[in-house]
Amino acid sequence: MVKIFYCFLLSFLFTSPAHSQTIEGDWQGTLKAGGAELRLVLHITKGDNGGLKATLDSIDQNAMGMPVSSITLNNSTLKFEMPDIGGSYEGKMDAAGSRVVGTWTQGGSSLPLEFARVAMPAEPKNRVLKPSDIDGDWEGALEASPQKPRLVLHIISYEDGMSAKLDSLDQNISGLPVTTISRDGAKLKFEMKQLAGVFEGTIDKELKTISGEWKQGGVSMPLSLKRKSGAKVEK
Question: How many angstroms separate the CA atoms of 191 and 173, rounded?
Fold first, then answer.
């Protein structure tokens, strides 16, 4: 299971039509592989020499601003390379200049990848905190896995819902966004589409342990998350 955290370091690129449209701007797509989903955002601008330059964000891996080493647009064909992760992309832009349909290649494997032009994201609004009795840090290990990876779940609650991030301590990976998280009484569920993984568990009455199962790739493993010492419990 541990290696799945590394499996999908991605890339993607965009192109603009051969006529009045331009390729500069922000493009978003989702790379799907083996049940996992990774949201990507490509930022394309003009370079100092008149060519193109770009960076790529992998939102669900908390990997922002990854450099694109080369990017070209010839007629309606867009190509770009990211040698740091051994990846490349080639796609065709539609006549409207709003989509690019192509293929992402990495590690000898190829996957379809389509991008759509998106507006510049608005400045994030300040969310209003509404702390719950399970906010804080919860640590556990997948004991059924040979590597026994240690995980830390960070939960924070707002007026408009819960949010969370996950760390994989033994891989030095931190801040992986949890796609969705919800609570129904003593039941807690969170999903991580970038890992094709889901956790469902039960919170004990003392608010010290969340016991349940992690499901990924057709395999279920017990996972018990314990509140880290020193964390405040609000009842």
Answer: 17
